[in-house]
Amino acid sequence: MTTTLKPATAARAAGHQPGPLALALRQGRLELTQFLRSRESVVFTMGFPVVMILIFAAVFDGEIAPGVSYPQYFITGMIATGLMTVSFQNLGIWIPIERDRGVLKRYRGTPMPKWVYFAGKVIMVVVVGVIETALLLAVSVAVFDLQLPGAATKWLTFGWVSVLGITACTLCGIAVSSLARTSRSGSAVVTPIALVLQFISGVFFVFTELPSWMQQTAALFPLKWMCQGLRSVFLPETFAGQEPGGSYELGRVALVLAAWCVIGLLLCLGTFRWTTRRDG
Amino acid sequence: MDNELAIVARGLRKAYGKNVAVAGVDLEVRRGEVFALLGPNGAGKTTTVEILEGYRRRDAGEVSVLGSDPATPAADWRNRIGIVLQGVGEFDELSVSELVHHFAGFYADADDPEKVIARVGLAGKARARTHTLSGGQKRRLDVALGIIGRPELLFLDEPTTGFDPEARREFWQLIRDLAAVGTTIVLTTHYLDEAEALADRVGVIAGGRLIEVAAPEHLGNRQQAHATVSWRTPEGRTESTESATPTELVTELAARFDGEVPGLTVTRPTLEDIYLQMIGHR
User: Fold this and answer.
1) Minimal C-alpha gap between A182 and chain B (Å)
2) Among A157, B59, B127, B232, which has the highest number of CB atoms less than 10 A from its own CB?
3) A16 at the B interface (CB within 8 A)?
């Protein structure tokens, strides 16, 4: 190798590759730029939960329990749905498109470590998730006097439930992206999963009014636990008695969401494909 | 590992189910040479190249590319390799400049992105979003992303498809410049004139096997092939004769016509003629 006369080889020793953190941040910025420039994804991903809460607030007037208005209840489901949309649906739809276009194949041909691609997606999802949630809360406070939590511990719970939830959904979104055979089938795979989970997890209905078999099914998946964790943040302690378990069960929320993070990670590692099937 | 060889493959095999795509290819590419792989569609060209690039796993055989097995490459192996794939990897929402800068960040010793953009002839389009580029311009961007890491070994899969003749000439010059600084280049192409213009050696793949490797002028014993001499007879017919000694024949004709021979041509089989003969005889 030392026998080559190439200037590039001689200079190589002096070269430096960006460190892991810098690589991840650059990739995150690229992903975010692509997302924000795609107007449809900005409007639909960011706007969907806001539109939904406005509709719900207009349709359901009144109180679920003393001191608990309908919008105050449904905001929890909308935040959870929003987080799931930017992570699970967004990635489950976009990654197959990138795979089909050969974007992933192109990355694989560079020295970029594989994990950097996922890190970039995570950064994009987290930034968009934060913006979207802030927007949702701002609109809700302005339009129907949403009561924001006061205590610091509530905000802390809000934080960890959101982080665990969005992590689990991101990993599951990456995992599910490998099910789509072509760029067009991504949304066909992801949309029904998301919709069914939303219906059975207490996003559109008061959870305890659902049939118990439906509640039990929902309890196997992360969305139900995200909603429940968020209810502990936005609803009073007195409402906890109306939960299926008689309390907000924050320990179990953490456990189930963490379990889904592990399951999602294992699925990603085991099934992720960088090329389309016909590509071998 | 022989330091003089950039690529060594022995008994390379790959099957997809019952369909054997590569049936025992032996290949050596020397450092610093431009090697062209020719072959009809489905002959095993792309599969062979993608195994060398580390995209596909082989079923059998030994492979060494820049001293590494592409299936389990050394840590900095991808730093030393550039790949230009066929029409792959569209990033619609980004500009040419953003994309080339981003990819430069993946390499330990990347070239200056602005220089590379100028070099592939996209300086005027640096700020344009990639989806606004024409087919040929997208191809140039592919090439820019392939060479941004200053590779020691560059793979080009049908690089000039969709280029107009002028763009092809410019591209050929770019390849010659890269070769001049010692870059090893492996290209697949359908254009025989491209192989002839660029390649030090040409390998012909057909039916999953490498059926011949030679310098373009020697392929299929081309240098020994008879020349065809044609001229017009005084009656106005065109006469052709194959000859191993065309000069002698032309001298004789000149004497017969007492000077200028009407409609005289002397031709040898083109690389295309030889190639079609080779793959047709299988």
Assistant:
1) 15
2) A157
3) yes
Contacts of A99 in chain B (CB under 8 A): none
Q: Which residues contact B271 (CB under 8 A, 6 or more apart)?
A: B192, B193, B195, B196, B202, B216, B219, B222
Same structural domain, B79 and B181: yes
3-state helix, strand, coil in chain A (%, to 5): 75, 0, 25
Count of C-beta atoms within a 10 Å radius of residue B248: 11
What's the rounded Cα separation, in Å, for the pair B16 and B57?
11
Instruction: Please report the beta strands in A44-161, taking only residues with DSSP state E, as ranges in sequence order.
Output: 63-65, 68-69
Note whether A182 and A96 are within 8 A (CB): yes
Residue B185 corresponds to which amino acid?
I
A19 in contact with B at a CB cutoff of 8 Å? Answer: no
Write the ipTM: 0.83
B62 within some domain? no
Q: How many CB pairs under 8 A join A and B?
A: 106
By CB atoms closer than 10 A (0-12, 13-18, 19+), residue B61 is middle
From A3, A33, A102, residue closest to B88, measured CB to CB: A102
Residue B210: both structure tokens together:
């490498």
Whether residue B108 and residue A16 make contact (CB cut-off 8 A), yes or no, is yes
Closest partner residue to B90 (CB to CB) among A6, A23, A101 is A101
Share of chain A above pLDDT 90, in %: 54
Q: What is the pLDDT of residues B102-120, one digit of tens each?
A: 999 999 989 999 999 999 9
Q: Which of B46, B81, B99, B109 should be substituted to probe chain A, the one whose Cβ sees the most A Cβ atoms within 10 Å? A: B109
- Residue B162 belongs to some domain of the structure: yes
Radius of gyration of chain B (CA): 23
Judge whether A109 and A156 are in contact, CB under 8 Å.
no
Same domain? B199 vs B246: no
Q: Based on the fold, state whether residues B241 and B113 are members of the same structural domain.
A: no
**Region of residue B258 (phi > 0: left; psi between -120 and 50: alpha; otherwise: beta):** left
User: For the segment B49-93, what is each residue's pLDDT rounded down to a tens digit?
Assistant: 999 999 999 999 999 999 999 998 887 899 999 999 876 667 878
Q: Do A14 and B88 touch (CB under 8 A)?
A: no
- Domain check: are B138 and B208 in the same one? yes
Nearest of B136, B271, B120 to residue B190 by alpha carbon? B271
Asked whether residue B280 carries a pLDDT value surpassing 80, the answer given is no
Taking CB atoms and an 8 Å cutoff, what residues of chain A touch B182?
4-7
Instruction: Tell if the CB–CB gap between B16 and A280 is shorter than 8 Å.
Output: yes
Residues B40 and B159 in one domain: yes
